Amino acid sequence: MSDRQAVHDYIVRNRQRFQDELFEFLRIPSISAVAERKGDTRRAAEWIGERMRTAGLEVSIHDTAGHPIVLGEWRQAGPGAPTILIYGHYDVQPPEPLELWTTPAFEPTIRNGRIYARGSCDDKGQLYLHVKSLESHLAVNGKLPVNVVVIAEGEEEVGSEHLMPFVRAHRDRLACDAIVISDTGMVGAGLPTIGASLRGLAYMEIRVQGPAQDLHSGSYGGAVLNPATALARIIASFHDAQEHIAIAGFYDDVDPAPVFRANMERVPHDPAAFLEETGSPLAWGEVGYSTVERLWIRPTCEVNGLLSGYTGEGSKTVLPAKAMAKVSCRIVPDQDPAKIARLFEAHVRKVAPAGVTVEVLELHGGRPWRARLEGALVEAGARALKYAWGKDVVYAGEGGSIPIVPEFEEVLGAPAILLGFGLPGENAHAPDEWFSVENYELGTTAMAELLFELEHYQRS
Amino acid sequence: MSDRQAVHDYIVRNRQRFQDELFEFLRIPSISAVAERKGDTRRAAEWIGERMRTAGLEVSIHDTAGHPIVLGEWRQAGPGAPTILIYGHYDVQPPEPLELWTTPAFEPTIRNGRIYARGSCDDKGQLYLHVKSLESHLAVNGKLPVNVVVIAEGEEEVGSEHLMPFVRAHRDRLACDAIVISDTGMVGAGLPTIGASLRGLAYMEIRVQGPAQDLHSGSYGGAVLNPATALARIIASFHDAQEHIAIAGFYDDVDPAPVFRANMERVPHDPAAFLEETGSPLAWGEVGYSTVERLWIRPTCEVNGLLSGYTGEGSKTVLPAKAMAKVSCRIVPDQDPAKIARLFEAHVRKVAPAGVTVEVLELHGGRPWRARLEGALVEAGARALKYAWGKDVVYAGEGGSIPIVPEFEEVLGAPAILLGFGLPGENAHAPDEWFSVENYELGTTAMAELLFELEHYQRS
Questions:
Q1: Do both B90 and B162 map to the same domain?
Q2: Does the complex come out with an ipTM higher than 0.85?
Q3: Any CB–CB contact under 8 A between B427 and chain A?
Q4: Residue A171, helix vs strand vs coil
């Protein structure tokens, strides 16, 4: 039996134990957002550290001003061997609303081939399958084909505030040839997927001030400009009739992504399922692009919140002093969040009527990211996935943002690859989160295979 | 000394007592909106009833499902004498925010010729000066020149729910030749004013539904229509570039009010004071009309409230399921609130994009009103005011709505006259409400004089 076959047999043989251990991990309510769960969050860090140690890694736990960062290292692959950094997170989203869970969030349960639990998919299951793939190599062969550093953080669900400062401070120790991240999904069951892009984010708040205080809408209505009306006009100016964004210069840096667009024909998309999933009456968006393209390769300008005047029950005849909108742009390569925020503010100032004063605040920004879809890393990933699933990979964009991906690449100077095993409808941030039992095992197999594939990998 | 002179001397002689009594009235916190003040509100009803009785009226207090209605009657003016109905209210607005009052809301205090107290102007001071004018006639002459019914309600600040049912039920008892209401203001100090018009109201709520639940703005943004964006577009469609209302048929029934417009040149308007009063950066509104015209004779379409998505601190990347706006139109003669609500809804449905579903609720309506500016009643009012202030009256519109005015006229079949003594900046519904000491006395004089003027009045 080859080394490979032995490793993969080990995974199959230990199926039940791997699942039992994951259940233990899932029972720890490591909710990073909640102060009372600080102890549980640390417990999850220690638990995953201990498991990495048992697997054969050298483990260190690094305190931060928030939750700890866990490092697991194995550096005995010999001279010239590449170093692979694997990133994941052990913290989870809050489980609320609890009443919408079929079984309790922190009591993992299998139904219909799915592991239901908070964090099963995002990201404990996907982090732990890497640990199990490393264990399988070390248990069978006493070594890994490559050097490995696992970095597991506990603040992904609250903004990863201390991650990048840590990475920068330990740049040499974390030096690597590739960054592997399993925190995304596959485009469909049985369709192994490599992440091709992430949208970035530019998040702004518009504050419109009309009169100095709320006025009586009878005594003053018609003679001063209503800030809520002014805000509505500003928002209505963001798109043209084709739903193109009408902010000057907005598309200047957008990559039309023709190569990636060609792959899209292979992406399954069921329009009826999309409407059912969203509950929206119609698919809607930029003319000239499909739903999948609108989500993956086109930028957006979306209102996230609106507030003005009286919003309680019944009627109150107030002419509001203020109106506020939260607006965020999902941006695509090579748009820059700071530049988009500037263009946005310039647009708002240009269209804002003189009868009100307007302020634009830049709340948050994150860069978009694009995978290199050629080269040794992506080829290794594609072969590893094909080994496990027996099918060619699909390259999938992601509508959301993972700002740490481009940041990792920049600080460590190595390319990242997104190999995710979630599935559509996984409820990552909602009640009844689940992770496919099959994907847990095939993901472990694929990630074990990836290490073989990367044995002779050289960063290009 | 004539009867008139004697009555007016009596008012001057009793100045201090009239003020002391008003202070007693103002100390009763008759806040109709607040359940815990139900006892105080009744106490104010009993207090004003007792004062009417002392003045020489027959008093009855009528319970309603809300606060009581107080009637004071004097019907001995002899055969053929007209009957005058005087309306006022003894309830007041809540005083909050308390910290913005210079002296406590229910401890009347005089500063700079102003009586500061909640209800001083709206409407206890204006109601009580009628009671004092009646007392002055009866004390000096033992009779009134006309039959009088005073009706004082305790629910004006909460929508007058039980007033009109009471008036309808007592239509015969309340039969009259003219309705006198002092619950408005003068256009400026020393400028006696007769109310020429009131705007009505059509108050609607727009509910826009996009997706069935809030979505992640990254995962779905760009591929479904954002209901907040859709709502902004709907609101932006309400006006054209000249700030005319762009709802089809909206102006069909608007009276251009040319006679009234001519009088407007006599209305003082200080643009700088208006900006200071509102704190708005600019006067703004329908092209072709002055600020005063925009407030008095032109209809509006104003947003009163907006709500959608996430409105807390910081950034949350939500694509909202719902967006809501409260929108009200101030309407002018001869617009009808129900018709305007229908046109509004038709407009919203016409412009709403197909990617969302829209509901329009009609929350509240009130009719506009226009005074007859010729005839015996308005002439009597003008002479009475001129007697007190020594100046010709100004005919003033009112931007707000008093739906009971047209309702009184309709149910009782008699014309109303608005003789109000508030002044600009009186803070009727705000902290530091005040009523001019001078207007309290001159108002008493004018209203005593009005009864003489109406002695031979016949409804035309």
A1: yes
A2: yes
A3: no
A4: coil
